[in-house]
Amino acid sequence: MKILVTGGAGFIGSAVVRQGIRRGHEIVNLDALTYAANLANVAPVSNAPGYAFEKVSITDRAGLDDVLARHRPDAVMHLAAESHVDRSIDGPAAFIETNVTGTYTLLEAARSYWTAEGKPESFRFHHISTDEVFGSLGPTGKFTEDTPYDPRSPYSASKASSDHLVRAWHETYGLPVVLTNCSNNYGPYHFPEKLIPVVILNALHGRAIPVYGAGENVRDWLYVEDHADALLLVLEQGVVGRSYNIGGENEARNIDLVRTICRLLDERRPHAAPHDRLVEFVTDRPGHDLRYAIDPSRIREELGWRPSVTLEEGLAKTVDWYLANEEWWRPLLTVAMERRGKAS
Ligand SMILES: NC(=O)c1ccc[n+]([C@@H]2O[C@H](COP(=O)([O-])OP(=O)(O)OC[C@H]3O[C@@H](n4cnc5c(N)ncnc54)[C@H](O)[C@@H]3O)[C@@H](O)[C@H]2O)c1
C-alpha cells in the first residue's frame, strides 16, 4: 500500500513511517517541519526505495493537491498536529489553525483526490486522535468508543473538533474513514519537553524533576512502537466509519511513573544518592485532567491487537534508548529547556 503520512517527522508519525517501511508499504511523509519535527527520527528509513518526503503544511490546499496528484496514495494517515497541552494553554491559535483548519483542508484535498480517482472503496483516510477528547475520569471507569466527548483544554477541544469533521466527511460525502483515539505515548524519539524524556534527561543532568501538583494524575501509557503497530493494523483491517480506542493497559500515577524511571536510572547509572531525590512538586496545570484510562476491548476483540510490552518493560527500553542516543537528544535540549517541560 502507498500511504501518505502527515506529521511523519514527529514522535508517533515517525514510528509509523519506520514501521510502515519495514512492513513493505511505500510511504510519503508530509510534514511542515515545525519545532516538534525532526528528520533524524526517520533517518533509519530515509534511504529506503519506498520512502519520499514532502515539506508541506496541511493548511496549504494547493500543496496538498500537488502531493496527492503526484504520489497517488492508497491511504492517508493523518497525524500532523500541534500536540502539547501546555503550549495550547499559552497560545491556542496555532492549535485551531493546524488541528481544525488543517484537518478540514486535508479532508477537502483528500475528498477531491478520492473523487477524481473514481471514489475507490479501498481508499482510507485514517485520523489519529487522542483519549483527551473524552475529558477526565474519576478513580474508576474507562473510556470506550461510545463515551461522550467532553474536551477540557484548547488542545483536546481542537482534536475533538477534528474528529467531528472527519466523521462528518464520512457521513456527508462517503469518504472512507477510520479513526483512532489513543492514550499517552512514550518511547524512543520523544521530544524532550514531554514528561518521560524530561524525567530521564533532568535526572541524568542532576536537575530538578518537575511534577505537577502531587503527581496524582493517572495516565494509561502506550509504548509508541505498539501504537504504530495498532495504527497500521486499523488502517489495513479496520471497518470503515468505525473508531477504535488504543490503550497500553498500563495505568500509572505520574509520581509512580517518575519513581520507576528514577529506579531504572539508579540501576544503569548509579549515583551516590538515588535519582528520585530530584523530584520537585510544582504548581498544577490549570484544568489538569485527573485520570484517563482506555477500554481497548474493541481493537482487541475485532482486530486481535494487544500491547506487546508492560510499562516496566517499555520504560526500560526507553531509558536504554535515551542512554544510547545522546547525539539525537543533545541538540534538542535548548528548545526543550526553554519550555521547562513538565508532566503531561
Ligand atoms: N503523543 C501522544 O501521547 C499522543 C496521544 C494521543 C494522540 N496523539 C496524536 O497523535 C498525533 C501525533 O502526535 P505526536 O506526539 O507524534 O506529535 P508531535 O508534536 O511529535 O508531531 C507532530 C508533527 O506534525 C507536524 N506538523 C505540525 N503542524 C503541521 C502542519 N500544519 N502541516 C504539516 N505538518 C505539521 C510537526 O512538524 C510534527 O512533525 C497528533 O495528532 C496527536 O494529537 C498523540
From TrEMBL:
Organism of this sequence:
Silicimonas algicola
Record GO terms (molecular function): dTDP-glucose 4,6-dehydratase activity
Protein's name in the database? dTDP-glucose 4,6-dehydratase
Which PANTHER family does this entry report, sorted A to Z? DTDP-D-GLUCOSE 4,6-DEHYDRATASE-RELATED
Please tell me which top-level EC class this enzyme sits in: lyase
Q: One Pfam family, short name please?
A: GDP_Man_Dehyd
Keyword Transferase assigned to the entry: answer is no
Question: Methyltransferase: is it a keyword of this entry?
Answer: no
Give GO BP annotations, semicolon-separated. Answer: nucleotide-sugar metabolic process
